[in-house]
Amino acid sequence: MLKTTKLNKQELKDFLDEKVETYNHPRFIETDPIQVPHQFTIKEDIEIAGFLTATIAWGNRKSIINNAKKMVELMDFSPYDFVKNHKASDLEKLDGFVHRTFNGLDFVQFIRSLQHIYKNHNGLEAVFSNYQEADSLQLAIHKLKTHFFEIDHLPRTQKHISDPLKNSAAKRINMYLRWMVRTDKNGVDFGIWKRIPPSSLSCPLDVHSGNVARKLGLLKRKQNDGKALVELDHSLRELDCQDPVKYDFALFGLGVFEGF
């Protein structure tokens, strides 16, 4: 086992950069939920399939992937067209969907809210880019949630979009933003949103990345919450200020695949 407590900053960067090279690879797609939006080529299809996949990305990874594929199938493998042009009767087939606490009622609400976002706010990219800050997208996540639920909605569905302004680490939506924004020469992340720089992304913070980050001295806070995310952001920006979230591959890979 590597004695990480002995690593200086440059050694730590070299160690993590090597792990990024290992895991930021097309074979990563084979075992990751990102494979679902990779089925598509049209920008809006990618971003909607990605958004819905990220929304249910908690629990068993195989179950996440299978259920995200089921969501796409229920939208007739045309997510954007379904969101934009669905009729009320088209939503009936979504009723039986369930992934943990995300059920058919939530799925229907997400389709209606996504239609609202594309018709009245120029789409998901526009919302995030309009509210981005110089070094953070956490306010933009809050604003997306606000716009998402400004139409009539089921109160229960609000829990499926986290709010960083309520001290949430918003792991799933930060992961989604990595997919959409990060320019990736290896072709894992899409990089189809050009109005947001990768430098403003935040690492998807969960139990795996959090535990590894603490072992490496990148994070001291014990809870995986919004305050911890700010601390981890600062540490990763010191290693690479232009592409800090590339280290998500290293932290996740070390935790999930290497039991670090």
Task: Give structural notes.
The chain has 260 residues and is mostly helical. The chain has 2 domains: 1-31 and 203-260; 33-201. The chain is 49% helix and 2% strand. It has 11 helices and 2 strands. The chain has helices at residues 9-23, 43-55, 61-74, 79-85, 104-120, 124-130, 138-148, 171-181, 207-215, 226-239, 247-256; strands at 98-99, 102-103. A hairpin with a 2-residue loop joins strand 1 (98-99) and strand 2. Helix 2 runs antiparallel to helix 8 (171-181) and helix 9 (207-215) crosses helix 11 (247-256). The mean pLDDT is 96.
Short recap of the structure:
This protein is an all-alpha fold and 260 residues long. The chain has helices spanning 9-23, 43-55, 61-74, 79-85, 104-120, 124-130, 138-148, 171-181, 207-215, 226-239, 247-256; strands spanning 98-99, 102-103. It contains eleven helices and two strands.
